[in-house]
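Section 5: illustrative case.
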């Protein structure tokens, strides 16, 4: 994990999303809760369903080029200071909808997938492992795609440890998240 390279308290534009296409996504809930804890920064939360594109293939790229939605998302990334993602884990890996977006972003010319931006990566699951598999996968991979991973946060057993009205109720995890936000804000 990289040390943070921003001036503390500098106003940030934060781009945030859950890497899940479920309308009931627990990772969306975690993203919304975490976004609410950032103060004096602008957080834009997007839904990856709004960036659904044809399944990536080299043939398709040759035939039709990069979809406009990938270009739009690339511009959003490039104009942000921090990217915050919370990953759902499917079979130990990325959700297909996210992987498709990742693949399209990664073949765009003249820019890196994650725009050389600081990234805060999170993940949660219903089970006790807190989707650590997909989180570690992203943490290891993203530096090769121009992502500066400055913090990670795995949140286990979502239904037990999170309440809609209160957010995180497991004190040790709440403190861990607050201290990450304090460090990267
Ligand atoms: C196809 C599929 C595969 C899954 N694989 C895993 C897995 O490998 N590890 C895990 O912790 N949960 C797994 N789950 C359960 C998800 O963690 C759970 O559905 C969670 O709610 C997904 O996050 P989301 O609600 O943000 O989409 C899987 C669920 C589905 C539908």
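Designed sequence:
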């Amino acid at each position: 994990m990289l040390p943070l390279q921003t001036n503390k308290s500098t106003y940030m534009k934060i781009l945030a999303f859950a890497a899940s296409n479920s309308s009931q996504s627990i990772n969306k809930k975690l993203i919304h809760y975490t976004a609410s804890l950032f103060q004096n920064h602008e957080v834009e939360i997007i839904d990856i369903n709004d960036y659904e594109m044809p399944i990536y293939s080299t043939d398709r790229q040759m035939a039709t080029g990069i979809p406009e939605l990938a270009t739009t998302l690339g511009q959003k990334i490039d104009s942000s200071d921090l990217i915050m993602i919370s990953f759902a884990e499917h079979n130990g890996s990325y959700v297909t909808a996210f992987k498709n977006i990742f693949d399209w972003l990664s073949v765009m010319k003249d820019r890196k997938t994650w725009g050389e931006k600081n990234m805060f990566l999170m993940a949660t699951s219903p089970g006790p492992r807190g989707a650590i598999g997909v989180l570690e996968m992203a943490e290891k991979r993203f530096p090769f795609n121009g992502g500066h991973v400055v913090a990670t946060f795995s949140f286990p057993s979502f239904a037990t440890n999170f309440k809609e009205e209160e957010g995180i109720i497991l004190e040790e995890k709440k403190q861990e998240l607050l201290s990450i936000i304090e460090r990267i804000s």
